[in-house]
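User: Hi! I'm working on a homework problem where we have to compare a predicted structure to a textbook description. Could you give me the structure for the chain below?
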Amino acid sequence: MPLEQLANIAEVFGLLVVAITLIFLTIQMRQNTKMLRSTATHGAHDQITSFYHPLISDPSLTDLWLRGLNEPSELSAVETGRFFAWWLNTFFILQNWYFQTREGLIDKELLNSFSKLMTDMQQTPGVRNVWEQRKYMYAADFVSYMDDEVFGRSPTHEYRPLGVAEEQH
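Assistant: Happy to help. Predicted C-alpha cells:
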C-alpha cells in the first residue's frame, strides 16, 4: 500500500477519533451540568431547612422572630442584633440563589417560590426595616432584583408569620 494511502487512512482514522472524543465530551458535559444543578438544588433545600429548623426547635427564637417581624422597635438591643443576623443570613442565602439562578444552576421556580414569600413578608415592618438598613451590603444586581421584583410587587396574600395571627403570639 502506498504511503499516501496510509496517510489518508490515518487522517480519516484521526478525524473519526476526534469526532468520537467530541461526542463523548459533550455527553460528559451534559451529565456534569445535570449533576451541578442537582447539587445546587439540594444545597438550596438544605439552606431553607436551616432557615426553619431553629424556629421549630427553639421556642424563644420563634418568639423573637415573630416579635421582630411585627414590632421591631420593641426588641432589646441583643434581640435586635439576633433578628438582624437572622435576616442578613437569609438575604445572603437569597442572593446566592439569585446568582445561581442567573448561571442556570438553580431552576427559576425555586428562587421564585421563596421570592413570593418575601414579597408577602414585606408587609411586616421587621423585614422592611432590616432590608432598608442593610441592603448596601449586597450586590447591586441583587439589590435591584429585591427592590424591583420582590419588594416592588404587591403582596399576593396577607402574610401571617409562620401561619400565626398577630394576636396569637
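For your comparison, note the following. The chain has one domain: 45-168. Residues 45-168 form one domain. Good luck with the assignment!
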